Amino acid sequence: MIANEQMEQNSNQQQVLTCVDEQNHLKQKQQQQQQQQQGNKTGSETTIDGIANKVQYCNKQEQRHRSTGSIIFKVVIASIGFFFFGYQQGILNLSLKTLDVIFEIQEDDQKFYEGLMSCLSPVGAIIGCVISIYLVKSYSRIRSFFIIDLISLLGSIISVVSANVYVFMLGRLISGLGVGINTALVPQYVNEISPSALKGITGCLLSVLCGLGLVVSNIQSLGYENDPKQNDDLGNFWRFAFVFPGALTVLRSIIFIIFIKNDTASYFMIKGDRKRAEAVLKDIYKEKYVEEEIQNISQEIEMQKQGLKYWKDLLSRQYFNRVKVGVFLQFLQQFSGINVVVFYSGKIFEEIVDDSSIVFVLALMTNVLQLVCAFLSAYFSTRYGRRSLLLNGDIACFFFLLVFGIVSLIKNYGAASGDVTNPIVIICVFGYMFSFGISLGPIVWAYNSEILPEKGLSVATITNWSSSIIIIFFFPMAINIMPVGYIFFFFSFWCFIGMIFIKVYVFETKNLTPQEIEMIYNPNNQKKQEQKEINSN
């Protein structure tokens, strides 16, 4: 007992010294080696007390990595896959009227084909998420990116050379495969190359690139005719709009070939190539931290080998809590109502303003706001942590959706005119966009990449795309049978459930290693309550 208590104290001291005392680094290594010879519970194991110290005192830790700029560069290049994701989401909705004319779809059939074209990309994304698991098993991370980029380019080419709507939809399905694999693989790659101190920033860059894709798709929509039915010659702009993202993914592969030749250290360690793993880590970390990072990666790989051999192992005690959190957060991201708010706000803008150019500017402002918020979330998640942003952002989304619903019903039943309700609705739209854009939008992707293994990340991403399909399919029907206010109440209900869930089940991961995250989510941990007390502070 005395030896165990001493080991826990030493472990706590090591966590604090890592943050504030560079001079004692070699001494810490000697202490770890001595403790590893002592018994079943080694001093290298991180206790909850150590985690508490790290969460509270690591804000001023010494920079362990060599260059922030080089890491950000790699993350931005990899995140072109998320630009592809955001662009594909935005460009189709802005192209539907033109595509109806191009493919000579009859007016009675337009809603059916528009819904089908909208659903095919998420369906392809679900398939892509499953493929991603087997892709990274067979190929390295970078070679997997090459394959994804070829799939994305193929989907874009098929879309633009299509002679009829069915070939176009095949192109959308294949592009969806690329989107799905990107949304599963890019967060994993970013997490593997990012030091703990930068994971808040690098994780949020995924949403920055996604938001940039939405903004660019909005700007490109200026090339479309306002009323394509009145124009006999629509030209080939629509082809450029759909081939552009595929060409951009090829650019990603070229940059990887020229500038980013090495894979991740985790990949090389999995393959048993320690020398190449060390070479990669020496490019990222200062020399004295390389061995420690090697040990961290080795421990993480060993934990996954022992507990995650099959898909069913995600339901084991070791992983279930983390998978539960990851899946629900992805579900909440969609069922917080983001797609419906974007859709309905466009109609509101059209009601308030007759000038289509002003409507375009207002719609563009909502996407630019999300892009700005993604940048802000990178700063705030690093300073205040992931959990507080998720919780507070979800509370704000709940409030704006509730007000949105009440005001919409007041307007629907004629209790107040549009002159009174429309300004409130606009405030709610931008307030909601800010709240979502700084929390549930970017942080969910960043948080999931920190807490979930490969298979768990794929399952969570599949949940996101499945939820998206449900909303795309049922929202048009719901809006035809009930006032839109009730729909906003439905989404505000899920935000309320999200508040409770985040408060109870989501733990802070700021500055924590994978081993420490494993500890706070392990149901067998006897000191789990102490981490809850940290979260409540």
Automatic annotation (TrEMBL):
Pfam families the record matches: Sugar_tr (PF00083)
Membrane topology, record value: Multi-pass membrane protein
Catalytic activities: D-glucosamine(out) = D-glucosamine(in); D-xylose(out) = D-xylose(in); D-fructose(out) = D-fructose(in); D-galactose(in) = D-galactose(out)
Gene3D superfamilies: MFS general substrate transporter like domains
Molecular-function annotations in GO: carbohydrate:proton symporter activity
Keywords: Membrane, Transmembrane, Transmembrane helix, Transport
Coiled coil: none
GO CC annotations on file: membrane
Keyword Transferase appears in the UniProt entry: no
TM helices/strands, residue ranges: 71-92, 112-136, 145-167, 173-190, 197-217, 237-260, 325-346, 358-380, 389-410, 422-447, 459-479, 485-506
Annotated compartments: Membrane
Principal place of residence: membrane
Domain Major facilitator superfamily (MFS) profile: 74-510
Lineage: superkingdom: Eukaryota
Family: Belongs to the major facilitator superfamily. Sugar transporter (TC 2.A.1.1) family.
Binding partners and assembly: Homodimer.
Record protein name field: Hexose transporter 1
Lineage: Eukaryota, Sar, Alveolata, Ciliophora, Intramacronucleata
